[in-house]
Amino acid sequence: MWGPEGLDEVEAELLGPPEDLKGRDVLEIGAGAAQCSRWLAAQGARPVALDISHRQLQHALRIGGSFPLVCADAGALPFTDDSFDLACSAYGALPFVADPVLVLREVRRVLRPGGRFVFSVTHPVRWAFPDEPGPEGLSVSSSYFDRTPYVEQDEEGRAVYVEHHRTIGDRVRDVVAGGFRLVDLVEPEWPAWNTSEWGGWSPLRGNLIPGTAIFVCERD
Fold first, then answer.
1. Packing angle of the helix pair 168-177, 100-110 (nearest 10 deg)
2. What is the model's pTM?
3. Domain map of the chain by residue range?
4. Is the domain 9-124+166-199+210-218 a CATH 3.40.50.150 member?
5. What is the three-state SS of the chain?
6. CA Rg, the chain, in Å?
7. Among 196, 200, 53, CA closest to 123
């Protein structure tokens, strides 16, 4: 799944037809519990799941899978040049780094020529609205152009969660500065079958404002 709307890679084929994934080397960045890598392995791909959180990778280890788990920073990938055919990231890494171009350049470095990187993030327009699933989440409460990061701190004032806002234009420029060609920008519509309400996600909001932005990028 590329996001809470429920867009499935089987349907979207943003990485290519599932039958073409067999034997391909794929890097999942910000893998969390490695759900995407588990699906990729089931298609016959050779995934590597990378996350900076050791605890998240422990969850992946408990769930199981026959692919490598790597604890590392997405801005300093521990792989040689031209190691992977594809890379993907579903809501991983990029929203949480202050310098996304550094990550994009690293991903480009480890991709083989012609390699594709597909990543999804919260749609930038959501930044202007409260994170509420009901009617109160439909009124603009802040500036779309305010790039001040969202930060949560512990009792001692240490940052425990940081999310960085980028506008659509920022994201496009980041992709280009990272050395990629932008092939597609997908904004999934909320499907009628999805009646789930979770956090700031709901059919009410999903039918009116975009929730996910998926960037399909290629290394020429």
1. 40
2. 0.95
3. 9-124+166-199+210-218
4. yes
5. CCCCCCCCHHHHCCCCCHHHHCCCEEEEECCCCCHHHHHHHHCCCEEEEEECCHHHHHHHHHHCCCCCEEECCCCCCCCCCCCEEEEEEECCCHHHCCCHHHHHHHHHHHEEEEEEEEEEEECHHHHHCCCCCCHHHHCCCCCCCCCCCEEEECCCCCEEEEECCCCHHHHHHHHHHCCCEEEEEECCCCCCCCCCCECCECHHHHCCCCCEEEEEEECC
6. 17
7. 200
pLDDT at 180: 98
Q: Shortest CA distance to 105 belongs to which of 15, 27, 176?
A: 176
* Per-residue model confidence as pLDDT tens digits over 93-147: 999 999 999 999 999 999 999 999 999 999 999 999 999 999 999 999 999 999 9
Q: Which contacts of 62-69 are long-range, i.e. CB under 8 A and separated by 24 or more positions?
A: 63/33, 63/34, 63/38, 65/34, 65/37, 65/38, 65/41, 66/41, 67/34, 67/37, 67/38, 67/40, 67/41, 69/31, 69/34
Of 98, 104, 124, the closest CA to residue 180 belongs to 104
